[in-house]
């Protein structure tokens, strides 16, 4: 629901379009082949751009097969550069993959050191689908930030716990997208490329995985709840 605002900001910035990487998503309301084609054009209009760099199926429910076909056609037409998915567990991927001519560039999932998505990442690897993490910092979870292993590794490297967490994502080949409105935190989030975690650090972090996240996409009732409560257009 922020495409119009993002489009205005891009136009106001004065930065060349090709220097900005735009990701947006197709909402459940626009799933299915014909609806998805209109949804894609709606996103382009809202953003006031000729193409979108990365476009995702926001959720794994309803007619994802038809929607994906529309995304693939949009790639052929030059409207989208890359396409991907979000919140797709192994079961949803098994349903969708046989119908794909273009494999997803990424699967955007909840992922952090307490919920490492090991099995899903293992499943995606042969298909070259990258993991992109939402909630990479656990939404500020006290359990995550007060973890003694992470705190000790942070002290060892002279970094903050959040920097250790983000560096862990990078070392694991996961693309983190931390959310912040604080300029100081945003600056800190970028300062993770001047050090590396060693094998001992990585092994210790792997032991704190609980295998449990804050959200279970496999709950099919969630799709109906989302569709009922969030309407992005009439």
How is this structure best described in words?
The chain is α/β, with parallel strands linked by helices. It folds into two domains: 1-104, NADP-dependent oxidoreductase domain (TIM Barrel, Alpha-Beta Barrel); 137-212, no CATH class. The protein has helices spanning 3-13, 33-47, 64-76, 90-96, 118-124, 142-145, 148-157, 161-171, 183-190, 199-206, 221-229, and strands spanning 23-26, 52-57, 80-86, 106-110, 130-134, 175-176. It has a six-stranded parallel sheet, with helices on one face. α2 (33-47) links the parallel β1 (23-26) and β2 (52-57). α2 (33-47) packs across α3 and α7 (148-157) crosses α8 (161-171). The longest helix is centred in the N-terminal third of the chain and has 15 residues, at 33-47. The protein is globular, with a radius of gyration of 19 Å. It starts with a helix and ends in a 5-residue tail after the last helix. The mean pLDDT is 96.
Order of helices and strands: HEHEHEHEHEHHHEHHH
Question: What is the C-alpha radius of gyration, as a whole number of Å?
Answer: 19 Å
What average pLDDT do the residues reach?
A: 96
CATH superfamily of the largest domain: NADP-dependent oxidoreductase domain
Helical content (DSSP H or I, runs of 4+) = 40-55%
Largest sheet: 6 strands, parallel
The first-to-last residue Cα distance is 13 Å
- In total, the number of domains comes to 2
CATH topology of the largest domain: TIM Barrel
The neighbouring-strand order within the major sheet is: 1-2-3-4-5-6
Layout: helices, strands, pairs:
Blueprint: H1 3-13, E1 23-26, H2 33-47, E2 52-57, H3 64-76, E3 80-86, H4 90-96, E4 106-110, H5 118-124, E5 130-134, H6 142-145, H7 148-157, H8 161-171, E6 175-176, H9 183-190, H10 199-206, H11 221-229
Parallel strand pairs: 1-2, 2-3, 3-4, 4-5, 5-6
Helix pairs in contact: 1-2, 2-3, 7-8
């Amino acid at each position: 629901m922020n495409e119009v605002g993002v489009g205005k900001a891009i136009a106001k910035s004065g930065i060349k379009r090709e220097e900005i990487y735009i990701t947006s998503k197709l909402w459940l309301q626009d799933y299915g082949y014909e609806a998805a084609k209109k949804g894609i054009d709606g996103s382009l209009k809202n953003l006031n751009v000729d193409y979108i760099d990365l476009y995702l199926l926001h959720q794994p429910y309803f007619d994802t097969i038809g929607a994906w076909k529309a995304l693939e056609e949009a790639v052929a037409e030059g409207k989208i550069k890359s396409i991907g998915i979000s919140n797709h567990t192994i079961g949803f991927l098994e349903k969708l993959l046989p119908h794909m001519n273009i494999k997803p560039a990424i699967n955007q999932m909840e992922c952090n050191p307490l919920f490492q998505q090991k099995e899903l990442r293992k499943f995606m690897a042969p298909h070259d689908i990258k993991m992109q993490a939402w909630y990479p910092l656990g939404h500020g979870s006290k359990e995550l930030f007060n973890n003694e292993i992470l705190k000790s590794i942070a002290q060892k490297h002279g970094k903050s716990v959040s920097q250790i967490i983000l560096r862990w994502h990078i070392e694991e080949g996961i693309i983190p997208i931390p959310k912040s409105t604080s300029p100081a935190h945003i600056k800190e989030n970028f300062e993770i490329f001047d050090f590396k975690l060693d094998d001992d650090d990585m092994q210790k972090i792997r032991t704190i995985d609980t295998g449990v996240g804050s959200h279970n996409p496999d709950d099919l009732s969630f799709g109906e709840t989302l569709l009922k409560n969030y309407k992005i257009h009439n």
